[in-house]
Amino acid sequence: MPTQIFFFTQPGCISCDIVRIFLEAKQIIFEERDMSLESTSRELLEKYHSHTAPTVVVLTASSAEVIEGFDPDRLDHLLPAA
To answer: Where are the beta strands (DSSP E) in the chain?
Structure first.
């Protein structure tokens, strides 16, 4: 399974904008999910045990890494090189 990146955001979130700029600058392909939608919020909480925005989930064949907030060092370590 190739690495998948899910980026959970909410409207008006400045930290989300920063993470989005970071991911785009690194040319990382990600799927943005709006956690203001009830189904997305429930997925984030139940599946990834997070309730904060921004949250980046890095899925690989062997794990799901959850990064809450903006942590550039951890993102650099976990994300595939572009």
So the answer is: 4-9, 31-34, 55-59, 64-68
Q: What is the pLDDT of residues 33-55, one digit of tens each?
A: 999 888 888 989 999 999 899 99
Q: Report the C-alpha gap between 64 and 17 in whole angstroms.
A: 23
> pTM surpassing 0.70?
yes
How would you classify the pairing of strands 31-34 and 55-59?
A: unpaired
Low-confidence ranges of the chain (pLDDT < 50): 82
- Report which residue type is found at 13: C
What angle (nearest 5°) sits at the alpha carbon of residue 16, between those of residues 10 and 21?
140
Q: Which pair of structure tokens corresponds to residue 15?
A: 């930290």
Q: Is 69 helix (H, G, I), strand (E, B) or coil?
A: coil
Taking the CA atoms of 5, 82, 71 and 35 in sequence, report the sign of the dihedral they define: negative
Size of the chain in residues: 82
